[in-house]
Amino acid sequence: xxxxxxxxxxxxxxxxxxxxxxxxxxxxxxxxxxxxxxxxxxxxxxxxxxxxxxxxxxxxxxxxxxxxxxxxxxxxxxxxxxxxxxxxxxxxxxxxxxxxxxxxxxxxxxxxxxxxxxxxxxxxxxxxxxxxxxxxxxxxxxxxxxxxxxxxxxxxxxxxxxxxxxxxxxxxxxxxxxxxxxxxxxxxxxxxxxxxxxxxxxxxxxxxxxxxxxxxxxxxxxxxxxxxxxxxxxxxxxxxxxxxxxxxxxx
Length: 251
Prior knowledge:
Radius of gyration: 17 Å
CATH superfamily: 2-enoyl-CoA Hydratase, Chain A, domain 1
Largest sheet: 6 strands, mixed
Order of helices and strands: EEHEHEEHEEHHEHEHHHH
Strand content: 5-15%
CATH topology: 2-enoyl-CoA Hydratase, Chain A, domain 1
């Protein structure tokens, strides 16, 4: 993960990187959360821009860390990133190129505006591994409505940028999504008061922030206490890592 100040320090760019597909492991989750909190502590920052290094935004959270011995710590660290975003209350923009999957899509969709390249592919494929996405389960319906959110989380489909825009998952399509995001920031965010922007974000996300802790605790309990006790959740993750089809036992 790399942090960079743009627009005279008014925009904090956080670039996901460090591995093929910009996989979000526990170290990157912690680095991103710390960078978000650092941006929130600066009175001059008016927006955060998330972008992936290379051709893709992110393939999602590390599959290896979905194994039983790592999954609890992985969930806590990843969810702390979203806690940091709610606490910082900064407008967040996502510039999406290539694949934006799983936890990568959860992060992008949590932003106020999502800018995608025409060839972007977005999806929540966790169900193919026998698991489900807690953040998307909590939040995605606010972006897309419940039917589309359930299609993504339960059906596991991957969408192209045009379909993602039709359902509200993407706000704008641009050949250079980072440039489009910065143009939006210059037009709509940078002329405003940093203090007022943060209060406006806090106001419009008041209900989400109020229920985040209780809802994420319930979803973590469902994931760790029920899902990870099934044979198929472990089988799906191991099958992916072993590059073979899963052998479901339906239990």
